[in-house]
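In practice, a research group might receive sequence data for several interacting partners and want a quick structural hypothesis before committing to experiments. The following worked case mirrors that situation: the sequences arrive first, and a predicted assembly follows.
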Amino acid sequence: MAGPHEVLGMSRLLGIGTTEFLAAYTDNGGTTLRFGEEDGRCAFVTESGCRVHARRPLVCRLYPLGRATDGTGEERFARFPKQDGCEAEFGADGAIADFLAAQGVAPYLEWSLRYGEVYRRMMRLLDRVGVEGKVETDAGGEARAAGSYPASDRDPLSSWQDIDASLSAYCAEKGIVVPAGIDEAIDLHLAAIQEWLDGLEARIGAVSEDPEGEGTT
Amino acid sequence: MGKQEVGRTVSRREIIKLAGTAAAFCTSFGFLHGSQVGGAVQDKHLQQDKHITQHKWERAEIKWYSGNALLHSSVIPAKVAKHLESDVNATVEVKLFLSGQMLRNLGTIQGKH
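A structural hypothesis for the assembly, expressed as tokens:
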């Protein structure tokens, strides 16, 4: 798995843009890192280690742990079996909190929470939209517009996954400078998505944060 | 959950983008939709460890239907976009899968005119 903020971090480390990163290193609509078809290895694993270790995604930082939260925010961890060929050191010593701290997990969990809020808002909007017969039917021209739909499994499902491109467009429209820092870019990315959802919600109608809309991260 | 009436102010393209973004976040972050948590854990690795009770899935598929006929899975191709434009019975479903088995159906968007 690779969230847009993680794609941004890894692309900066590699010295490329997120558009190029998504095209070169992700699959499944830009949502997962690409693995070799023959050897099944992550594209970043080399003989000398991970090429993006300093900006590796949360799922890599957590491994061999799996993390889940329920609707109340209660956190649970599981330990995955050691995978064949994995050279990581496995052991049952130490506390999970110490392991998470050593892996620099905290900011990634915070970003996950923030994107989770956006995700739940999107789901509430989708729940709310009873689209039957209510969507404009003049979308033919829009739907055929260049870039409206992914051409393959390797194209991002949504333009919002590409932080560089989406922020470039957003900042151009607003007449502001695209932030250079990763943290600032993520902040603006989240704000831009919320603004987009504000616009949708204004037309769909206010969406209450009822319990049914709450999600699990 | 009851559906609210929606005015004719939201384009199909916007709804598809909203569904696509939600599906992308769902997959890339591992989010599940709260009201639909509760099914069986399908991942054999997680089943081996009793410390975890949460569900996990490997990927999200978007499926397009015309009536009961499945048109396409995965990303939104141009041919389906055209179908959505022309077929009043076309729908979009967002589902979560693990090991080939569906865990949750996140919902259906009908593209009826």
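Before designing any experiment, note the following. Chain B has one domain: 12-110. The radius of gyration of chain B is 16 Å.
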